[in-house]
Amino acid sequence: MDPKFYFLMFLRSMPSAFGFIVRTPENAVVGIVGGQVVLDCQLVPAELPANVEVRWNRLKLGEPVHLYREGKDQPTLQDLSYAHRTELYKSQFRNGNVSLLIKQLTVQDEGVYSCQVASGQERKDNKVMLKIAAVGLNPVIQLTGHRGSMVELGCTSKGWYPEPKVMWLDGHKEELRKREVTENKVEMKRMEFYEVNSSAVVMQDSQNIFSCVIRNDLLNSMKGV
């Protein structure tokens, strides 16, 4: 028989002979505050080992995010901050799918997660990064003061994550020069969301129309007024 046939048969049998591999996305997964996200985790070959244990952990977190052991979920052993917010697709276990669903996302959910699968003496894992994002409220522009022949405009907004970028544009959609933007303060409030407070000084008799634009680069989304 052709030796190539034996070689191909050997390659096809390698995953079973050498156990299984855990695969997760190489790129970060992005979730939106208040929404839900799936952290993908697949076994190769696509079949679940016997007496399997599936453990999802988050780096620097003591208790598991989700634990499946002895044929069922173990909610009493998971970190309390994830209670009633996580699910495994157990109907997809036979296809090697051990992905994790996280619901009602918060900023605190951001971090590096580990998908760990164990069977007997064999234990494999892989990691995936979860980034959290939020688009804040529409910015509000107000006249905040006078400086001789100049007037000061203020732009405020809140509810952004991660830290957004702030730009002032004139009527030609060109960004104002740095000396015209007197303050660009973006700070985190309550260790969760970022709040924007920005000011620009322009000529009082200017007929131009100015706008304040706030951008979330992670979501490639912006809001302006």
From TrEMBL:
Its main location: membrane. It holds the Pfam family V-set. One of its GO terms (biological process) is regulation of T cell activation. Keywords: Disulfide bond, Glycoprotein, Immunoglobulin domain, Membrane, Signal, Transmembrane, Transmembrane helix. It comes from the Eukaryota. It is found in: Membrane. The keyword Signal applies. Gene3D superfamilies: Immunoglobulins. Residues 15-131, 148-225 form the Ig-like domain. Belongs to the SKINT family. This is Butyrophilin subfamily 1 member A1-like protein. It comes from Callorhinchus milii.
